[in-house]
Amino acid sequence: MNCTACTTPLDHAAQLCDGCDRGLDTRLGELPAQYLLLAEHLRPGAARGDGPVALVREAPLPVREDVLDMRAAGGIVTVLEEWRAAMQDARGWGPPARSGTVERRVRDAARGLRMNIEWIAAEFAGAGDMAREIRALSGQVNALLDPAPPTLSVGTCAADLGGGDICDAPLRVPAGSTTVRCRRCRTEYPPSTWLTLATGTWAPAGAAA
Ligand SMILES: [Zn+2]
Ligand SMILES: [Zn+2]
Question: pLDDT band at 149, cuts 50/70/90?
Answer without folding.
Answer: low
